Amino acid sequence: STKIPFRLNQNQALLTFEDEEVAQRLIKMGKHTVNLDNKIADVRVKPFTLEMGIKFELHVTISGKKINVSEVPELSIPEDWMRDKLELNFYKSKQGGGGEVANVSYNKQSRTAVITFVRPGAANAFVRCTEHPFVVHGKTYRLSVSPHTSAHFEKFQVYCGVSKKTILLKGIQETEEDEESVQDMIEIHFQKPSNSGGEIEKIKYVSKGVACVCFEE
């Protein structure tokens, strides 16, 4: 399920009722007089809507034929030679992977390369390998090796959430009582049918600062 955040500001409360008819009735009334610590407070009831957002699924695929290579040493040899040496190096790999190479894409400026093998699954042996020896002119260098991944998005959707069972209370006056006590008083008031209320599933009141409340779609 998707979790959608909502910013609840100071002196505000969110109430979610079991019955959406209760919430809609309270919203139509607009203002309510609530007894908080023997003080009468006029609070405003607003419909609850979430800000517009975007949700999507990110799918990442690890290639079985390609690997990324970085930290290729800077050598005074032509780029074609470097490509050939990289191809030979991974063709003759002693680490159980590798094999015939279909293509070497080498970037001298960034000192990186992408090695593409002919055989599917040939790259799998390098998934747990972070370094690979590279011998040139009798000197051994260490290449950094990592899996080649591709990513794509699916189920890209724009949403604007509306909860018909939830109301937003604004203008709650500050009292000397602690946050939990005030929250209990608000809950008692809006649970009473005589106050046009009903059974409350969840409530969150913020007396100071800001709270982030998450709703599940």
UniProtKB/TrEMBL annotation:
Biological process per Gene Ontology, one example term: innate immune response
Record keywords: Cytoplasm, Immunity, Innate immunity, Nucleus, Secreted
Limits of the NID domain: 13-101, 113-202
InterPro entries hit by this protein: Nmi/IFP35_dom, Nucleotide-bd_a/b_plait_sf
Location, primary (coarse class): cytoplasm
GO terms under cellular component: cytoplasm; extracellular space; nucleus
Compartments where located: Cytoplasm; Nucleus; Secreted
Superkingdom, taxonomy of origin: Eukaryota
Protein name: NMI protein
UniProt family annotation: Belongs to the NMI family.
